[in-house]
Structure formats: structure tokens, C-alpha cells
Design a protein that fits this description.
mainly beta, 50% strand, globular, single chain, 0% helix, four-stranded antiparallel beta sheet
Amino acid sequence: QVQLVESGGGLVQPGGSLRLSCAASGTRFSLYAMGWYRQAPGKQRELVAFATSVGRTNYADSVKGRFTISRDNAKNTVYLQMNSLKLEDTAVYYCSAAFGATMAFEYWGQGTQVTVSS
């Protein structure tokens, strides 16, 4: 199992920004696709952004233009920069990993809470 630890969540006002970090264990980080999911209470978990093992990125329509995923393979870390935050962005955010090009996200962090409130 790959071990993932998220950090950087917190309370922010609408229109504000946060940066989430996810530290991964192991020495083969560059071979994994990395994704950020989020889940609000009583709602379905959704994939909001991912970065493939070769550095390509994609975003859910709901966050495109506001969120940016990036990765630093030397630090075994993936980031999610969140700008122009909205109330609907409130959720627990999870880091996840998929080996190679499978896009089967099977490794999960513990989650970090993001609350957007005025």
C-alpha cells in the first residue's frame, strides 16, 4: 500500500485561497497518477483534478480555471492550489494515487477539511 498524508485545509472566506499538500511514501512516486477528490456530508465523492505519471493534468468543470494541481516528484508531493473559493467547495479533500496509466485510484490519504464560509 502507498501511504498518503494531506495537509493545508482550513477555514477561508468566499473568494479566498488555500493550497493543499499531499506527501507520498515510497520511491516510485513518478510512476503514479495523482488525484484530488472531495466529499461533502451526504454527497457523492467527486474527482476534482488529477495529474498523470507523465505530467498531464485535467480538471472537473466545476473547478476549472480556479484550481491548479501540480506535482514535485523530487519531494514525492502533489499540491492543489485553490483560488476564488465558493461555498460549494466546502468538503473533505482526499489525495489519491493510481499506478501507471490505470487511473484506478486505490490508495487514499486521511483527508483534510476545507470550509468556505463568510
